[in-house]
């Protein structure tokens, strides 16, 4: 029964190995010795990417709890993209803020391992393990600037609330185990399907608790309270990393659990998730309008984007599943790019993330202003960019399942969100006051990362067919 | 409800015994308080000062690291018991697990977490390899 093949975990092994090598490099690094540690991280991530591509269509499984089906491999590729871009943006922040480089990259890589495991796990306990691996790494990254009060506060809030959410999740797993006698997703699925137990209060309780746990990680209303504080307190690159990576991994596990083993109960949980998705989209957008800090604004925008992702999950049809994957890729590229720009404009003393700090950015940093404009337009869902296709795809999935109300709420809230994205664009281009000077010149690597994200955003926006086909091929294997 | 009678009985007896002994000794026991008897129990030692003192952060660090490496042993026992059934894959897995911990160990060692004492200096540079002369100096406490 238990297969001892290691195939399915090779991508994770690559990243974990890179993390260990980074840790060793940091241990044997002389003081003040510079090491291309980011390069080491990128090598590991590229190796994991190659492994993920080679595992395509193989449906490898390891130990009976980890699978490398196309769905998880797609998520893996998104996560690897997130990792590589984050590394590219990080070097400048690390130098500027005096962040310990070795620890930073090692923790980030271990976090990516947890994220990948979250997409690949087919057992609730392994999903929990992955959730914790990922979360611990992100807590540390949030508070990595130890001397900054705001950063420490953010990390502590995130940690406490995250620990509570994890225990909710674990409690849900316990209920499901109590009813079905297993933590394996397949087994739970067959038991639930075999004996129609949708009215069973124990299983409803279990599913509800799982929703709490996942909704927390996706930052869905009403479990979103941690995210603006955590996103604001963390260094901007880390915020980009957690708003994309954590969300992608959590959504992947969310989709796998709810659309594979809990699919027979869709009539029970779909209304709940409908409500959560609608509330998340509306609240994320409406509160986002009132923000003056760019980081907080993008935090609320990423809450709203979590709502759009959940809309795809509520739809639950094949279009919805593929749409979620496409949305994850598009959102990851866009949001990372936006936070990359914010990170590059900050200084050690001040994050420079106030809306006023962006006044006249086009004059001082024309390239950054243009890049940022594209990312913001993509977040708002304007046509030539990835965000448009992704949103259109998700809403068409919702309409395909008959959720007209959800689609209308989604479209309306994304119209409202355009207001605050465009406000930044107007600030950058049409206001005269010069932006605050940027002390550090922007490195080539960081520019390359930004251009790479922009290329991805435009590619997904203009020629989305290849990736859409890819996403559709990814979902056909498991559900 | 059949199987639960025993548990109920156990709970009643357990709680009841505690209550009865406390209440009985309260009413029946002789009371000759002395300052020593009223003092907080401190393993037989007279209590000195407040327990809430500032502790060196080193203790926490060591405790945390002890916890990590203690878990390692907790994993080793079940593996040792099931070693034959797990055979080679099991051995590979425990080796991988161990190597990961060893990397962590090397890391904390190099970072000076295991150096106890105030002379730890983050700017510490590895001294030249101690030759015989240096050893002699330390051993006999003489200069040259």
Give a written overview of the molecule:
The complex is a heterodimer of chains A (479) and B (144). Chain A is an all-alpha fold and 479 residues long. Chain A is built from 19 helices and two strands. Chain A has one domain (7-475). A two-stranded antiparallel ribbon of chain A has the order 1-2. In chain A, helix 3 (70-97) runs parallel beside helix 13 (318-345), helix 8 (201-218) runs parallel beside helix 11 (266-289) and helix 12 packs parallel to helix 16 (386-400). The two termini of chain A are 22 Å apart. The mean pLDDT of chain A is 90. Chain B has a domain at 57-140: NADH:ubiquinone/plastoquinone oxidoreductase, chain 3 (Methane Monooxygenase Hydroxylase, Chain G, domain 1, Up-down Bundle). By secondary structure, chain B is mostly helical. Chain B has helices spanning 5-28, 35-38, 57-81, 83-110, 132-140. Chain B has five helices and no strands. Helices cover 62% and strands 0% of the residues of chain B. The A-B interface holds A 4, 16, 20, 23-24, 26-28, 31 and B 89, 100, 103-104, 106-107, 109-111, 122-123, 125.
Question: Ranges of chain A with pLDDT <50 over ≥5 residues?
Answer: none
**End-to-end distance of chain A, in Å?**
22 Å
User: CATH H level of the domain at 57-140 in chain B: which superfamily?
Assistant: NADH:ubiquinone/plastoquinone oxidoreductase, chain 3
Helix content of chain B: 55-70%
Q: What shape does the CA trace of chain A take?
A: globular
Which structural class fits the helix and strand makeup of chain B? mainly alpha
């Amino acid at each position: 029964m238990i297969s001892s093949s290691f195939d399915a975990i090779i991508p994770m092994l690559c990243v974990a190995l890179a993390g260990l090598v980074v840790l060793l490099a940091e241990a044997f690094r002389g003081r003040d010795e510079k090491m291309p540690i980011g390069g080491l991280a990128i090598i590991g991530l590229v190796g994991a990417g190659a492994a993920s591509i080679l595992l395509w269509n193989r449906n490898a499984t390891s130990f009976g709890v980890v699978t490398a089906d196309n769905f998880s491999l797609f998520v893996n590729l998104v996560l690897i993209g997130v990792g590589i871009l984050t590394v590219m943006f990080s070097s400048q922040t690390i130098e500027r803020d005096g962040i310990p480089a070795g620890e930073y990259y090692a923790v980030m890589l271990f976090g990516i391992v947890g994220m990948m495991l979250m997409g690949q796990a087919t057992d609730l306990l392994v999903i929990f393990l992955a959730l914790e691996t990922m979360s611990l790494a992100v807590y540390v990254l949030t508070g990595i600037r130890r001397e900054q009060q705001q950063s420490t506060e953010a990390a502590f809030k995130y940690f406490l609330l995250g620990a509570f959410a994890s225990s909710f999740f674990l409690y849900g797993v316990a209920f499901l185990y109590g009813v079905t006698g297993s933590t394996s997703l397949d087994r739970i699925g067959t038991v639930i399907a075999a004996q129609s137990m949708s009215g069973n209060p124990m299983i409803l309780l279990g599913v509800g608790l799982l929703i709490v746990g996942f909704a927390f990680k996706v930052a869905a209303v009403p479990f979103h309270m941690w995210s603006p504080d955590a996103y604001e307190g963390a260094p901007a690159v880390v915020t980009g990393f957690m708003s994309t990576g954590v969300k992608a991994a959590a959504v992947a596990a969310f989709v796998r659990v709810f659309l594979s083993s809990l699919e027979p109960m869709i009539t029970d949980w779909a209304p709940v998730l409908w409500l959560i998705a609608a509330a998340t989209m509306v609240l994320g957008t409406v509160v986002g309008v009132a923000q003056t800090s760019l980081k907080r604004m993008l935090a609320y925008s990423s809450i709203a984007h979590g709502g759009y992702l959940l809309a795809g999950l509520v739809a639950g049809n094949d279009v919805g599943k593929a749409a979620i994957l496409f949305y994850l890729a598009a959102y990851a590229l866009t949001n990372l790019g936006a936070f990359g720009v914010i990170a590059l404009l900050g200084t050690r003393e001040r994050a420079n993330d106030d809306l006023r700090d962006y006044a006249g950015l086009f004059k001082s940093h024309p390239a950054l202003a243009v890049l940022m404009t594209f990312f913001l337009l993509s977040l708002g869902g304007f046509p030539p960019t990835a965000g448009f296709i992704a949103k259109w795809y998700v809403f068409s999935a919702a309409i395909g399942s008959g959720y007209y109300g959800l689609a209308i709420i989604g479209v309306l809230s994304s119209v409202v969100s355009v207001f605050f994205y465009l406000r930044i664009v107007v600030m950058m281009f049409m206001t005269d006051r010069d932006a605050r000077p940027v002390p550090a010149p922007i490195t080539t690597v960081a520019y390359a990362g930004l251009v790479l994200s922009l290329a991805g955003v435009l590619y997904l926006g203009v020629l989305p067919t290849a990736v859409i086909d890819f996403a559709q091929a990814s979902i056909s294997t498991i559900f | 409800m059949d199987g639960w009678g025993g548990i109920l009985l156990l709970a009643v007896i357990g709680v009841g015994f505690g209550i009865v002994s406390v209440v009985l000794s309260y009413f029946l026991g002789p009371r000759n308080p002395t300052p020593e008897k009223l003092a907080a129990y401190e393993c037989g030692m007279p209590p000195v000062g407040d327990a809430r003192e500032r502790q060196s952060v080193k203790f926490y660090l060591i405790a945390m690291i002890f916890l990590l490496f203690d878990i390692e042993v907790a994993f080793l026992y079940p593996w040792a018991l099931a070693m034959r059934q797990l055979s080679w894959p099991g051995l590979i897995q425990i080796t991988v697990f161990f190597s990961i911990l060893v990397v962590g160990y090397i890391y904390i060692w190099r970072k000076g977490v295991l150096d106890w004492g105030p002379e730890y200096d983050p700017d510490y540079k590895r001294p030249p390899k101690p030759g015989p002369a240096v050893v002699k100096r330390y051993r006999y406490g003489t200069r040259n």
